[in-house]
């Protein structure tokens, strides 16, 4: 998908935005994009890290805990294509501010939830910022970062999701043990409001927005070409990652006899490993190498899922498994975002990002409820086997696409 002159997603004057060395480009700090990604999915990690407390205090069953993920990410999957179109039109400044404020409201309502029904409604609202996150941050990068640095910046901002996992699993879980889980969630909501103010004061108003009167590419709800393959890969990957995120702490507490604090620390370990993996693998995702990385990283994720199953017999393996999930499974999602930006169709950076994200979010919606049924029956071994099968499916899709891409490149060279 070659870029054309005047593509709003291109970084340069033709796009109507500042170059990477201009003051406007420097007005899009990587730290802000990283924080935006962290808050967009923080509720997922908080529900996972605080799962043992929610099960006890709100009388939430493991199945219902999985249903919270289904509702939140189901909402995100449905709204992602429209969210991408909105970002292409209004630009990342307004989109980022909106997602941060919506995250704050959703977190505040989760903290006020008196029971499962209210909790599910609050989580549904949290699906809205998730639908905006990747399109808005990718659009900001395309508008202000030179191509040579986009992989590294993308890896860093994608690591924000795992920064959220670390925050949920360590400082916020510790705060929950001190002041209660509601105070911890409200603290996160306040931090999201502060970050929204930072975004409004920092980002230039027109960065990445489509020019007035010009549509940002043809609108389509169906992914095509490379985007379709990446969406299918992300669907299977998301099924597995969401199950791990939602049930890892509960598995540690109920089957491995870890304390609630230690079980929450598992999520933090996964988060730290994910940060390192996303930054490193995104830097490695050069145009020639990137198509092969998703499949091979998914293969590594299969091993991580098998380690989780083995931890039932050898408890310390769960820590190694958490690291492996972060290094392989979580990192594969970041590489898929690098690929989207490398191949974004003219004027469709936001939409293409949103369509791939929709596949990932659909996986997040589908995976945990099935795992939850197995967790209710105390069949965690079968649950981790299911996760391994989902990662294996993602591996097959990723490697098949890479082979097709290599074949298409050879045919183009022969022509």
From TrEMBL:
Q: Which UniProt keywords apply?
A: Cell membrane, Membrane, Transmembrane, Transmembrane helix
Q: Which residues form a coiled coil?
A: none
Residue ranges annotated as compositionally biased, kind Low complexity, are 8-20
Q: Does the keyword Transmembrane helix apply?
A: yes
- What are the residue boundaries of the Major facilitator superfamily (MFS) profile domain, all occurrences included? 29-410
Spell out the subcellular localization from the entry: Cell membrane
State one molecular function term (GO).
transmembrane transporter activity
Per the UniProt record, which residue ranges are transmembrane? 31-51, 63-83, 95-125, 179-200, 221-250, 262-281, 293-313, 319-341, 353-375, 381-403
What's one GO-annotated cellular component? Answer: plasma membrane
The record's Pfam families line, in alphabetical order, gives:
MFS_1
Domain of life, source organism: Bacteria
**What membrane topology is annotated for this entry?**
Multi-pass membrane protein
Region feature Disordered, mapped onto this chain: 1-23
Cross-referenced PANTHER family: CHLORAMPHENICOL EFFLUX PUMP RV0191, PURINE EFFLUX PUMP PBUE
Record-given protein name: Putative MFS family arabinose efflux permease
Gene source species: Streptomyces spectabilis
* Organism ancestry: Bacteria, Bacillati, Actinomycetota, Actinomycetes, Kitasatosporales
């Amino acid at each position: 998908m070659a870029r054309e002159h005047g593509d709003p997603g291109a970084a340069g004057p033709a796009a109507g935005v500042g170059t990477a060395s201009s003051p406007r480009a420097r007005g899009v700090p990587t730290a802000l994009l990283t924080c935006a990604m962290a808050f967009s999915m923080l509720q997922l990690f908080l529900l996972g890290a605080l799962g043992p407390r929610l099960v006890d205090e709100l009388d939430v069953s493991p199945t219902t805990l999985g249903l919270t993920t289904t509702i939140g990410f189901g909402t995100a999957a449905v709204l992602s294509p429209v969210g991408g179109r909105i970002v292409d039109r209004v630009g990342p400044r307004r989109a980022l501010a909106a997602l941060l404020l919506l995250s704050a409201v959703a977190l505040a309502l989760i903290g006020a939830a008196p029971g499962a029904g209210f909790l599910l409604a609050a989580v549904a609202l949290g699906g809205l910022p998730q639908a905006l996150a990747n399109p808005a941050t990718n659009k900001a990068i395309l508008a202000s970062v030179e191509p040579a640095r986009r992989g590294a910046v993308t890896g860093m901002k994608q690591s924000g999701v795992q920064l959220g996992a670390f925050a949920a699993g360590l400082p916020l879980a510790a705060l929950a043990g001190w002041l209660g889980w509601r105070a911890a969630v409200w603290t996160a909501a306040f931090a999201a409001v502060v970050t929204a103010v930072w975004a409004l004061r920092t980002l230039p108003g027109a960065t990445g927005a489509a020019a007035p009167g010009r549509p940002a590419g043809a609108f389509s709800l169906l992914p095509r070409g490379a985007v379709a393959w990446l969406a299918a890969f992300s669907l299977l990957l998301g099924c597995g990652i969401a199950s791990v995120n939602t049930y890892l702490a509960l598995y540690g507490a109920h089957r491995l006899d870890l304390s609630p604090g230690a079980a929450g620390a598992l999520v933090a370990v996964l988060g730290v490993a994910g940060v390192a993996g996303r930054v490193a693998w995104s830097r490695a995702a050069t145009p020639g190498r990137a198509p092969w990385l998703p499949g091979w990283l998914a293969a590594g994720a299969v091993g991580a899922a098998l380690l989780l199953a083995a931890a039932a017999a050898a408890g310390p393996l769960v820590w190694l498994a958490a690291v492996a999930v972060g290094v392989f499974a979580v990192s594969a999602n970041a590489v898929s975002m690098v690929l989207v930006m490398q191949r974004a169709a003219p004027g469709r950076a936001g939409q293409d990002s949103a369509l791939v994200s929709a596949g990932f979010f659909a996986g997040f919606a589908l995976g945990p409820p099935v795992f939850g049924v197995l967790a209710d029956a105390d069949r965690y071994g079968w649950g981790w086997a299911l996760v391994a099968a989902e990662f294996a499916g993602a591996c097959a899709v990723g490697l098949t696409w890479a082979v097709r891409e290599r074949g298409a490149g050879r045919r183009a060279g022969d022509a």
